[in-house]
Amino acid sequence: MLDVMNSTEYEKVAQQVYQAILATDEVETIEVLHNVQITGRSGVPHQIDVYWRYLNAGVEHQVLVECKYYKSTIDLIHARNLLGLLTDIPNSQGVLLTTMGFQSGVVNLCNFYGISLKRLRDPKGSDWDGFIQKVEIEGIFNRNEYVDFGLKIDGNDEESIATMADGNGVSVSLLDALFQDGTAKPQLAATWLDRNVPFDQNQIGMPLITALTPANTFIVLPSGQRVKILSLHVEYMHSSMTLNFSFDAMDLVKGVFEDFNTKTIDYTLHH
User: Fold this and answer.
1) pLDDT digit string (tens) for the chain, length 271 residues
2) What is the CA radius of gyration of the chain?
3) Beta strands 187-188; 253-259: pairing state
4) For a disulfide at 115, which of 9, 24, 110, 160, Cβ 3.0-4.6 Å?
């Protein structure tokens, strides 16, 4: 939702939208301002809700955006007022912006004189026609909870013998340790265990035991030295959790900026 309470807040949101759009345009934006006074050729100052000034091919242009935060369609008087501003302020383009829409006379007059008609409105369900608006996912998250371990080191492995011969006693928490299969990238022991300890959906909640005898797996010590695992006795338990996730694109969109004539959405304003 646009979540605006009055015309001033609506104008400031319109300024934000134009700043976002114009930042991607090929023209060189000089400024996008809210609630400014521009003096026309007549010498009369005019209040402009959103004023955009830019350069294109070295020529300065001005866009005068009149914002109408109304709960009904815009009548002809507002189009005539904007046409008067464009007449008095040279080299300017006009945009009439509102929430609901425009009466037929407004559309005819503005189309004839090249005044753009835009709507900045709340999003609606039909904006996602042809697209996915809502996604609901239900899944099951399975995991192993490790209770205790028994570890045997391969006393015949030359690298392990050299490591232990250094005589540096090292205390390592097994779940926080790094395991390395051969020369592969080291990984946390918990990750390695999840990949190697079997999971049986029919044994959830039951105390379980398994014995692993990896062919070429090492514990990597903080010093970078390694010792080879001969066998690993693991006590563990399966747990399972059902996860529900829902997503509605409507919750992400604050407002929709569209061309009134073509119904083309020029920009979506996100929260």
Assistant:
1) 788 999 999 999 999 998 887 766 666 777 889 999 999 999 999 999 999 888 777 788 889 999 999 999 999 999 999 999 999 998 899 999 999 999 999 999 999 999 999 999 999 888 888 888 888 989 999 999 999 999 999 999 999 998 888 765 556 677 788 999 999 999 999 999 999 998 998 999 999 999 999 999 999 988 889 999 999 999 999 999 999 989 788 888 989 999 999 999 988 988 7
2) 34
3) unpaired
4) 110
pTM of the model: 0.63
- How many Å apart are CA 89 and CA 198, to the nearest integer? 77
* Amino acid letter, residue 99: T
Q: How many residues does the chain have?
A: 271
Please provide residue 23's backbone torsions phi and psi, each rounded to the nearest 5 degrees. Answer: -65, -20
Q: Which two tokens stand for residue 255?
A: 């407002």
Nearest Cα residue to 17 out of 190, 267, 244, 271? 267
Question: Taking the C-alpha atoms of 90, 83, 99 and 134 in order, what is their torsion angle to the nearest 10 degrees?
Answer: -60
H or E element in which residue 158 lies: helix 158-165
Phi, psi of 42 (to 5 degrees): -75, -10
Quickly tell me which residue has 């570890």 as its tokens: 151
Compute the distance between CA of residue 42 and CA of residue 88 in angstroms, rounded to an integer: 6
| Domains defined along the chain, listed by start | 7-121 (3.40.1350.10), 138-244 (no CATH)
Contact 269, 256 (CB under 8 A): yes
